[in-house]
Amino acid sequence: MSQSAPPPPQPQSPIRPEAQPAPAAQQVPQPADGDPFAQQAPAAVAPQQPAPRRGNVALGLVAAVVMAVAAAALYGMIIGFTKHEIGWAAVGVGFVIGLAAGRLGGRNPVLAVGATLLALGSVYLGQLVGEAMIGADQLDLSFSEVFFQHFGVVQDAWKEAADPLTFLFFAIAGWAAFSGARKAAG
Fold first, then answer.
1. What is the C-alpha separation between 116 and 111, in angstroms, rounded?
2. Which among 129, 128, 127, 105 is positioned nearest to 115, based on CA atoms?
3. CA pair distance 149, 42, nearest whole angstrom
4. What is the pLDDT averaged over residues 66-85?
5. Predicted confidence (pLDDT) per residue in 32-48, tens digit
6. How far apart are alpha carbons 110 and 61 in whole angstroms?
């Protein structure tokens, strides 16, 4: 059987003769996994703040209203110049309204519903603008005179010209606004 020999004496440092290993009571215990920093408390860590809320519902709705007015004017001009309703333009109307609402307003479901309703109103207003442009061209009057002074006549002309395709464009714009708002907020 072999016997273990006692450990050799440790030489003392010539600079500091008193530097010897610390007694066991003064040593910091090491964790079992070997990570020496695991039990040390972090120095001056700020408390965790909740993530800032993204978006503002009021701002999203205001942006959607502004976009709805601009999109209605553009959609109406497209109808007035081409004398036809165009499906991709209705998709564009709905999508830009939903995009504005979702980007600035965030994930609130009120924004998707509000964007949908604004898209329906925007398509309707755009179709009225288009009817007024067509009527002004046929009657040799200015657009503003036809639209503002004879608005009832413009609405009657819209009712007569409305067909199932007209209402399909409403549905398309509403769907595009709803899905645009949801995707933009995501």
1. 8
2. 105
3. 73
4. 96
5. 666 666 666 555 555 66
6. 9
Question: How far apart are alpha carbons 40 and 29 in whole angstroms?
Answer: 11
**For range 54-58, the mean pLDDT:** 82
Distance CA 34, CA 160 (A): 83
Cα gap 102→178, rounded to integer Å: 9
What integer pLDDT is reported at residue 40 of this predicted model?
61
Amino acid present at 81: F
> For residues 65 and 182, what is the distance between their CA atoms, to the nearest angstrom?
17
> Which of these, 136, 123, 138, 10, lies nearest to 69 by C-alpha position?
123
Dist CA 170 CA 123 (whole Å): 6
pLDDT digits (tens, 9 = 90+) for 3-17: 666 666 666 655 555
Residue with tokens 């604004």: 118
Side-chain-side CA neighbours of residue 101 (13 Å): 31
CA dihedral defined by 176, 57, 110, 186, rounded to 10 degrees?
A: 50
Residue type, 177: A
In this structure, what token pair is assigned to residue 159?
Answer: 């009712």
Q: Classify residue 138 as left (phi > 0), alpha (psi -120 to 50) or beta.
A: alpha
Instruction: Give backbone dihedrals phi and psi of 17, rounded to 5 degrees, phi first.
Output: -65, -25
Reported pTM: 0.70
105 touches 185 (CB < 8 A): yes
